[in-house]
Amino acid sequence: MSVSAQCGSARLKFLFVITLIGIAAYVAYLYVPVAYQAFLLRDRMQHDVEVAATQGYPASWVQDQLAKSASEYDMPADAVILPTKKDNRIEVQVRFTRLIVFPGYTYEYQFDYTAKSTSFLSGK
């Protein structure tokens, strides 16, 4: 009698663990692409400010480049792109919110990043 009760307990634990793994995989499936696009956008922002600083482009050039590539990085149309020039550096700040819809819950992914060019690359 006690042997059959132990087998049922193991099955229940197995189903519980498989359910948790499935939920974690689904959450990762929805979240990881958004986080990866944000990582790529940060890299693009840094590249653009470095190019603008070395080539002597105005800060608005960075804004234009990021606006052109917005669809490539799934940036929403209402994203705020603020380029500035400070202390012989070019900076750009991008802010936006993306919604990640899970069953029963909507997560707001906040992207707020500022890329700064290095000062020794600044063109005169």
The general outline is elongated
Residues in β-strands, percent = 25-35%
**Average pLDDT score:** 89
Number of domains: 1
Topology as a string of helices (H) and strands (E):
HHEEE
Query: From the helix content, strand content and strand pairing, which structural class follows?
Result: alpha+beta
- Note the main sheet: 3 strands, antiparallel
Q: How far apart lie the N and C ends?
A: 86 Å
Total of DSSP H or I helical runs spanning 4+ residues: 2
| Global Rg | 23 Å
Give start-end ranges of low-pLDDT stretches. Answer: none
Total number of strands:
3
Order of strands across the biggest sheet? 1-2-3
Can you put this structure into words, describing what you see?
This protein is α+β, with helices and mostly antiparallel strands. It has one domain (2-121). Helices cover 52% and strands 27% of the residues. The chain has a three-stranded antiparallel beta sheet, covered by helices on one side. The longest helix is centred in the N-terminal third of the chain and has 54 residues, at 2-55. The mean pLDDT is 89.
Based on the model shown, name its key terms.
27% strand; 52% helix; alpha+beta; single chain; 3-stranded antiparallel sheet; 124 residues; 3 strands
SSE map:
Elements: H1 2-55, H2 59-68, E1 80-86, E2 89-102, E3 105-116
Antiparallel strand pairs: 1-2, 2-3
Provide a quick synopsis of the model.
With 124 residues, this protein is α+β, with helices and mostly antiparallel strands. The chain has one domain. It has 2 helices and 3 strands.
